[in-house]
Amino acid sequence: YIGSTGASTGCHLHFEVYLGGVRVDPAPFLRARGVSV
What's the CA dihedral at 33, 21, 24, 30 to 10 degrees? Predict the structure, then answer.
């Protein structure tokens, strides 16, 4: 989908992580891969 819905007012990134078909908190996923959050 391209466009703006909800409260977005400018450029942003919508990022989701799914493991086994279940949405999970992306912070631990990113930290485990060396990304500072």
Answer: 10
Query: 8: which 2 tokens?
Result: 């977005």
- pTM assigned to the model: 0.47
Please, what sign has the CA dihedral across residues 33, 36, 22, 10?
negative
- φ and ψ at residue 33, rounded to 5 degrees: -110, 15
Query: What count of residues does the chain have?
Result: 37
pLDDT tens by residue, 1-37: 666 667 777 777 888 888 899 999 989 988 999 999 8
